[in-house]
Design a protein that fits this description.
Blueprint lengths: L1 H24 L24 H12 L4 H15 L12 H28 L26 H29 L12 H26 L2 H6 L20 H8 L12 H18 L5 E4 L2 E5 L3 H9 L11 H4 L8 H14 L4
Antiparallel strand pairs: 1-2
Helix pairs in contact: 3-9, 4-5, 4-9, 5-8, 5-9, 6-9
């Protein structure tokens, strides 16, 4: 029985990947492509190029970036919207509900705000939108037969709840001395460096969890829900099955080993949840006066939603290049993808 389930799941995965390649062959073209080929971070290239590495890090943070904005949101959350750490020693409804309500508000602020701006009020039209097709309605693939409502339900009912549960666990552990803590006075350099390292850890952690989620049995049970979104919007990022939320947000458990301040915990979880909304915006960025003022959606991950078997990770660490699943957006890379798919299916 288990062998049959695995075979069925593998067949489902193969059909999904094959249909994605065939859709492209039939002419489902991109509305917008960034400068190609896509480049990965220079941090893991040889020979070492210090100036290129510094430039990559600087541009990913300054002068304004989603990372910097989330540091700001995390600071506001900790100083103004979070229970005192000593109140977290005992699990109580009040402070747990406070964390959940704040996180729900943040999800609506970021994912909801981006959806209103780009898709309801259409302030940017289709300028720098990768895939100009409308988000789906009256479609039985989605809960409530509506892509946006489906995405909102799973993002809030499961996503915000599991996000909040991890935050509660970490704060309870810190308040009771089970999780190692870090104070600014102990090591200001490491305190700042931790903020810079979270995106790098995300690139490592997300790649391996994501590859695991594409294991056919797990894909069929959980990850297929996220892949309902072949075209994405801001609410798509955290639209996942509860099993995937547990795995994806398990990233924060690293701080049971690596000491951190509560501010780092809040930032770490907000980085994984809120950038899921920004990177799934479907637009390269916020354009003001014909210039991209804030980078948002990534073409790299947008291609994963359309082509399925490529770009499992991010651009900070070149895991996809190392394991042969990197799609740099060029026609040559796409032909390699199609050829690999034909060989996997035993086609000529």
């Amino acid at each position: 029985m288990s062998e049959q389930l695995t075979a069925d799941a593998t067949s489902d995965v193969n059909r999904t990947a094959t249909s994605a390649v065939r859709r492209e062959k039939r002419g489902s073209k991109w509305n917008y492509r960034p400068d190609l080929p896509l480049q990965v971070s220079p941090m893991f290239q040889w020979p070492v190029r210090p100036l290129a590495i510094f430039s990559w890090i600087w541009k990913s943070w300054f002068p304004v970036s989603e990372r910097l904005i989330i540091v700001g949101l995390a600071a506001i959350s900790w100083f103004y919207l979070h229970p005192a750490l000593e109140d977290c020693r005992d699990l109580a409804f009040g402070w747990i509900a406070q964390i959940w309500a704040r996180n729900l508000g943040l999800m609506f602020l970021v994912a909801g705000g981006l959806h209103l701006y780009f898709f309801v009020f259409r302030k940017q039209g289709d300028v720098r939108r990768y895939d100009a097709r409308a988000l789906k309605t009256d479609n039985n693939s989605f809960t409530f037969k509506n892509q946006v409502l489906d995405n909102m339900f799973w993002s809030c009912a499961s996503g915000v709840t599991i996000w909040s549960a991890y935050e509660v666990l970490m704060m309870w552990g810190m308040a009771n001395g089970y999780v190692p803590t870090l104070a600014w006075s102990e090591s200001p350099v490491w305190f700042v460096l931790l903020f810079l390292l979270v995106p790098l850890w995300e690139s490592f952690y997300f790649y391996w969890v994501h590859r695991f989620l594409h294991w056919p049995p797990l894909y069929r049970i959980a990850h297929a829900l996220h892949h309902r979104n072949t075209n994405v919007g801001p609410w798509s990022g955290m639209s996942m099955h509860p099993i995937e939320h547990v795995l994806y947000l398990g990233t924060v458990l690293i701080h049971w080993v690596v000491a951190a301040h509560p501010l780092h915990i809040i930032y770490h979880l907000q980085y994984f949840t809120l950038t899921a909304a920004t990177t799934h915006t479907g637009f390269e960025g916020l354009v003001v006066k014909d210039k991209n003022r804030l980078s948002l959606g990534t073409f790299h991950h947008q291609m994963h939603h359309r082509y399925f078997e490529c770009n499992y990770g991010g651009l900070e660490m070149p895991w996809d290049k190392w394991f042969g699943s990197f799609h740099d957006g060029t026609s040559e890379a796409h032909e390699r993808l199609r050829g690999r798919r034909r060989r996997a299916l035993g086609e000529a």
